[in-house]
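Researcher: Quick test of sequence recovery. Tokens follow.
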């Protein structure tokens, strides 16, 4: 039995966190045991991990002197737990989890890279400092560095990460959970106050500059000038009417009446199944879960050409330049103009692409093989 401890910055229901959740709950329990350590709190996913039988703990790391005690507790845990493998997820967990694991005598450390943009304009200074420190330590701390996209692999190698240690394992998608669902589509549209004549264009992503909601809303304004039945539905952390920064954007683009805001939702499969089109307007992505999940639900997508978004979508949707709201609007309008027949055909092709190239089971197998090989060396 191979004991794996996963260290992650937090357990909000965002991309890397959900991928970690999917991995640990699908690994072969006859060959692997998994535990999760959150550097901060149990967040949105903690209860779900516990319900799935995965031990999870939060060490409460923060920017105050008490954090040193949290690091000592984590080192004590590693020494008592004696994991065979420590898998870390994202920069702060890579840095803190990797170094503390080594100090506790654990040397099979795997870093996880789930970001492809290291630009000063779109990242916090603390994030870049953590990434640069990781780059300097990449020769000595991790056994391997797992990148979820080819774009992330290239960007981090250029940033100073040890190229010879990098592996590419894309995100994977549960095509049993995420699938076309006529009943969910009907129910969700009823909840949104939409009828079958309304054309629903969705975006799933937290309120953050990386997601470039301004780009999306500018495109939405352009589409609405010609498509009066278009309805724009957004979900994600802090995407709600109480967020004054977001509602001011809606006033700026005069969109309030044709927009629905759902905040973070527990069942994204229902959201995607209800949409006619799903959009990613991001300035930066690595390998977007929301797009793969939409495709698995049989929904065609319009994405910006960042990270591996174009690779993921292929010919089943449209890829446009980042930051170009006119091009984004044009891609949406092409799918609307093509009617339901075109959208159904492209959506079916999108689902087949996910099933054939990016299934969750194939990704879980690759992680398991990675850990198994490490045990043989």
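Model:
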């Amino acid at each position: 039995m191979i004991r794996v401890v996963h260290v992650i910055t937090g357990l909000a229901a965002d991309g890397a966190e959900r991928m970690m959740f999917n991995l640990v709950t699908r690994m072969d329990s006859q060959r692997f045991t998994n535990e999760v350590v959150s550097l901060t709190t149990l967040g949105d996913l903690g209860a779900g991990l516990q319900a799935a039988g995965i031990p999870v703990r939060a060490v409460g790391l923060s920017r105050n002197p008490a954090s040193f005690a949290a690091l000592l507790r984590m080192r004590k845990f590693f020494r008592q737990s004696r994991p065979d493998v420590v898998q870390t997820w994202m920069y702060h967990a890579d840095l803190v989890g990797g170094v503390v694991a080594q100090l506790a005598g654990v040397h099979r450390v795997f870093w996880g890279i789930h970001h492809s943009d290291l630009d000063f304009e779109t990242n916090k200074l603390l994030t870049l400092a953590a990434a640069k420190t990781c780059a300097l330590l990449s020769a000595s701390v991790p056994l391997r560095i797992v990148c979820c996209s080819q774009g992330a692999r290239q960007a981090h190698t250029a940033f100073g990460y040890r190229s010879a240690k990098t592996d590419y394992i894309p995100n994977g998608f549960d095509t049993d959970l995420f699938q076309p669902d006529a009943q969910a589509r009907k129910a969700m549209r009823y909840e949104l106050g939409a009828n079958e004549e309304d054309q629903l264009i969705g975006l799933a992503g937290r309120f953050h500059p990386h997601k470039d909601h301004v780009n999306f809303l500018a495109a939405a304004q352009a589409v609405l000038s010609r498509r009066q039945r278009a309805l724009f539905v957004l979900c994600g952390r802090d995407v709600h009417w109480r967020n004054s920064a977001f509602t001011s954007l809606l006033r700026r683009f005069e969109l309030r009446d044709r927009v629905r805001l759902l905040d973070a939702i527990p069942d994204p499969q229902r959201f995607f199944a209800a949409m006619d089109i799903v959009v990613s307007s991001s300035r930066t992505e690595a390998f977007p879960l929301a797009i793969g999940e939409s495709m698995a639900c049989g929904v065609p997508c319009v994405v910006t050409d960042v990270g591996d978004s174009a690779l993921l979508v292929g010919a089943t949707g449209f890829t446009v330049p980042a930051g170009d709201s006119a091009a984004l609007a044009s891609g949406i309008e092409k799918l609307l103009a093509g009617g339901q027949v075109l959208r159904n055909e492209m959506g079916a092709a999108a689902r087949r692409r996910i099933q054939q190239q990016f299934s969750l089971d194939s990704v879980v197998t690759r992680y398991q093989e990675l850990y198994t090989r490490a045990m043989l060396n």
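The longest helix spans residues 339-357.
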